[in-house]
Amino acid sequence: MSVPSSPTKRPRPSVAPATTGTPGDAAGTPHRAGFACFVGRPNAGKSTLTNALVGTKVAITSGRPQTTRHTVRGIVHRPDAQLVLVDTPGLHKPRTLLGERLNDLVRSTWAEVDVIGFCLPADQKLGPGDRFIVKELAEARRTPKVAIITKTDLVTREQLAEQLLAVHRLAGELGFEWAEIVPVSAVGDDQVGLLADLLTGLLPEGPPLYPDGELTDEPEQTMVAELIREAALEGVRDELPHSLAVVVEEMLPRPDRPADRPLLDVHANVYVERPSQKAIVIGHRGSRLREVGTTARKQIEALLGTPIFLDLHVRVAKDWQRDPKQLRKLGF
Ligand SMILES: Nc1nc2c(ncn2[C@@H]2O[C@H](COP(=O)(O)OP(=O)(O)OP(=O)(O)O)[C@@H](O)[C@H]2O)c(=O)[nH]1
Known about the structure:
Shape: globular
Number of helices: 9
Helix content: 25-40%
Bound molecules: guanosine-5'-triphosphate
Strand order of the largest sheet: 2-3-1-4-5-6
Number of strands: 9
Distance between the termini: 38 Å
Strand content: 15-25%
CATH superfamily of the largest domain: P-loop containing nucleotide triphosphate hydrolases
CATH topology of the largest domain: Rossmann fold
Mean pLDDT: 79
């Protein structure tokens, strides 16, 4: 285990620490490729870290917990390695069918990846939620596990040292050892490069899995839906996130547009569970929905690199989280 003594930037090793081969030039270093996923309580900073590693916005972040629904992959391309990041939803106490499905999705992801990163925010006490996740993690015996202390910009060195010790002890209590413990700040861009080195060092040797330059294999429509969902969640009540799903019904280039002024028509439905929630999303005389549309449109245009016309409808799908048929329709 390597526990950096301070959260300051360390020079990047020219060879990932886990390689035993000859140091130095790329020719002598075997290429590594594989999958990693981040787990941790809601709001631990998993999506932000994925974005920081990949260098572009692919996963969805928000100030509200549990906004990551779909498995979003970001791909880190380097001359010596390719790291495919799989971003899973937070593991939580299942109260609904959706909750159970999400937890199943998390566990099956753990069995498939080459390394798991457990994210623990530096500014939050290690709590029952973290213990629950790490206890489950301990069961994934064959997969190397890296403890990542996130948001180090929010704490003092002393607080960080305590957190490093706490996470080290927790693994000991549960009978395993972290392959690495790394403090990072995605926001402060601190030690993100080191984390990439450590993660890629734990991947198996092999050729790249994806073509160079590809950032994500998530279908465009899902990413567009996530951007709309993120915009719709901004500034709404705490209970709403779980009740909101977005489905992009259609994305079609507008016919008869001049070649130099294309327009993409995007039709999407925002599903809520109750009429009262519909009113919240729409706002007074539709003012909130207009804001959501404007915010989402800008993000989507940035993602796709083309002007779009966004047609948003809010619909009530009664108790969709408990209804298998509705869940399937909404893509779960
Ligand atoms: N100060 C600081 N804030 C951060 C950092 N990383 C993430 N955050 C903030 O923490 C909040 C949660 O970050 P996310 O990346 O959405 O967390 P997540 O673990 O993906 O959350 P879920 O999708 O709910 O599981 C956001 O408001 C981020 O801006 C960091 O390094 N420093």
